[in-house]
Design a protein that fits this description.
Length: 152
């Protein structure tokens, strides 16, 4: 599996997601610009001693990422999605794409992929879940569907 963070802004969220990726053998892709330095102490602290186990990739743009993985199966997480994340049949190697904390994914990306936009159900009076929580929820559903292969 792959988790993609498009222009992440909060180092602690990215650090927590990197730890989740390391313990699940999931690749993490960071799409620039980043809202922090990769040397940020909060980022490193959240990832603790998992950095050497992380399959981490940097991309200058989302289109660069798509060009590198032309056969990639991309799912776009958004509060504007029409179907729940549990209605998807995830496959090994799928990409779970998350936007930046303050704005989500770009509107043009969502409009170009309406059938690939999925959401986590929540009450309407709260804006959204924390990014690192959202990534963990969806990733673990995808891994559950695949039988948690390679995990104990």
């Amino acid at each position: 599996m792959h988790i993609v963070l498009v222009e992440p802004e909060i180092p602690g969220n990215t650090g927590n997601i990197s730890r989740t990726c390391a313990v699940t053998n999931t690749s993490l892709h960071l799409v620039k610009p980043l809202g922090f330095s990769v040397d940020d102490k909060h980022l490193k602290r959240a990832g603790l001693d998992y950095w050497d186990k992380l399959d981490l990739h940097y991309h200058d743009s989302f289109s660069e990422l798509q060009q590198k993985y032309p056969q990639g199966n991309f799912w776009y997480l958004t509060t504007k999605g029409n179907k729940w994340y549990t209605e998807v049949n995830y496959q090994p190697g799928d990409f779970l794409v998350f936007g930046k904390e303050t704005a989500g994914l770009p509107q043009e990306l969502l409009e170009a992929n309406p059938d690939r936009c999925i959401r986590i159900p929540m009450i309407s009076t709260v804006r959204s879940l924390n990014l690192s929580n959202s990534a963990a929820i969806v990733l673990y559903e995808a891994l559950r569907q695949q039988g948690f292969k390679g995990m104990k």
